[in-house]
Amino acid sequence: MSEKQFEQIRLVLVNTTHPGNIGAAARAMKNMGLSQLYLVDPKDYPAEKAIWRAASAVDVLDKAVVVSTLDEAIADCGLVVGTSARERRIPWPLLTPRECGERCWSEAATHPVAIIFGREDRGLTNEELHKCNYHVHIPANPEYSSLNISAALQVICYEIRMAFLTEKEGKALHFDDWDVPPADNKALEHYYEHLEDTLEKLKFLDPDNPRQTVTRLRRLFNRIRMDQMELSILRGMLTSIQNYIYYAEQNDSKGSEK
Ligand code: SAH
Asked: Ligand 1, residues 83, 150, 156: which to mutate, most atoms within 8 A of Cβ?
């Protein structure tokens, strides 16, 4: 069911400054058959300029969902991909635009998928990029690799369309079959909070120290694409560990009262 697949893919623009870019993004999406636009705290929106640049894609703008945080935009997504104009300090699993198109298209058959685009001047923050399962980089001229945001979005949406057309022509895309749906981003965020809290209680993590360990743990778990059942097993383990610590502390304090 390809119509449904297009609707399961959302393009998320974070803190966009120029409304013209939002309009151009809406047009780029509609040209490629996509329609789910999410705007996280846009600087200047709604705006006339967005409407001009959208041309015949005003319908995409009209139903764009404006939210105040990235977490809201991706909460129910089972796959989250972040776009980046450059390499970051901690490397993350990376897709080419073609692999990104194929993966987003095939996963959209079963769950919502988000592709995130950053601010015109400084892209996505590390914290935002660390919420992603994959990053995608358009291999542009290394001397000037930063595309205009709507041009970058056009390339990514084109690759999604190519994946759709390949499937339509009967060249099946190969992806693993799985028995349980993937954990969505909201569930993952809860898990990371639970994990961090537990590791602090265990004194494994020092809350005052730099959080590179947490970033590395996020990368580990985002890389393996946990399903809902696996995540709930891990949550159950964390709860048991926390209960154990709690009772151990109770016993300790009883012991010291004696
Ligand atoms: N100076 C910023 C550039 C941001 S460009 C930086 O270095 O991060 C604005 C947005 O366009 C980026 O956040 C990303 O979403 C997209 N973009 C631009 N060039 C890209 C590229 N080569 N590959 C993937 N996304 C790109």
From this structure: 83
